Amino acid sequence: MREAQFVKRNTDKWRDIEQNPTKDPDELTNRFVELTDDLSYARTFYPNSNVTRYLNGLAAQMHRGLMQNRRDDRSRFITFWKYELPLLFRQSHRLLAVSAGIFLIACILGWVSAAHDNTFVRLILGDQYVNMTLENIKKGDPLGVYNSRDQASMFVQITLNNIYVSFRTFIFGLFASFGTMAMLFYNGVMLGSFQYFFYERGLLLESVLKIWIHGTLEISAIVIAGCAGLTVGNSLLFPGTYSRLESFKRGVKQGLKIAIGLVPIFITAGFLESFITRLTLPPIISGGIILISAFFIIWYFILYPILLNRKRTP
């Protein structure tokens, strides 16, 4: 191909690259690949021409853009946790209150049901768990279930299961929020009946100081996952000024980010349950861990988003 023909064929593309820069990483990469292909061709057939020098300079400029974008991608991780997720969560505070309300009502119903029906706890928790716990109570170790497995395998299994429950609660929001509400209700009833089981045997305080070492983060994260699921469901039910499809896309994106933001919390809860809960700790230490966990949840998911939003919107 003659040089003039090569230039004529690609001039519009080069002009567009030069005059209409983009920050989209995929588009930037595609442009850079095409440009370097043209540069390689020019170096092969027109090594000393002006077009080769022009393409070399343009490619160098795009390469700097790619490197800058890569640095931005690294800082993106920090930006997500420090600004994007909290600001996103500020928009979901009302749904968080709904999720927490459903869960709390279910806990109360679970407690009351267990108090009035001796078979209810077995129905919810299963005969095997109840019989094992009763046997542990006789041995003087009512929460010995946390000492029954290897720590590392227990950590992996519990963490994966918690993440699975979280994403299932989120995904069930696709059923117009009713699936998420059902998941919240089931987990709330289970918690309420579980705590009454120990209360009935005079072990409520002991169970709280042990179970809530990891349960504070774990239960809070399930409620927050419920908020993510309700976000998806409500985007279908109440699209507002958007089309239903556009509202759904936005709801899924927002809910998914919230669900992903819970993964480190479930990992921490799994670590506490596997390595710390099994220990016999003084009440002041157990209570301290519970209070620190509760403070973190309240600060990061409620107070910090409010403060951050006020700074952005005077």
Automatic annotation (TrEMBL):
<keyword id="KW-1133">Transmembrane helix</keyword>
<dbReference type="Pfam" id="PF01944">
    <property type="entry name" value="SpoIIM"/>
</dbReference>
<dbReference type="InterPro" id="IPR002798">
    <property type="entry name" value="SpoIIM-like"/>
</dbReference>
<feature type="transmembrane region" description="Helical">
    <location>
        <begin position="170"/>
        <end position="189"/>
    </location>
</feature>
<feature type="transmembrane region" description="Helical">
    <location>
        <begin position="254"/>
        <end position="272"/>
    </location>
</feature>
<keyword id="KW-0812">Transmembrane</keyword>
<feature type="transmembrane region" description="Helical">
    <location>
        <begin position="284"/>
        <end position="308"/>
    </location>
</feature>
<feature type="transmembrane region" description="Helical">
    <location>
        <begin position="219"/>
        <end position="242"/>
    </location>
</feature>
<feature type="transmembrane region" description="Helical">
    <location>
        <begin position="95"/>
        <end position="114"/>
    </location>
</feature>
<protein>
    <submittedName>
        <fullName>Stage II sporulation protein M</fullName>
    </submittedName>
</protein>
<keyword id="KW-0472">Membrane</keyword>
<feature type="region of interest" description="Disordered">
    <location>
        <begin position="1"/>
        <end position="25"/>
    </location>
</feature>
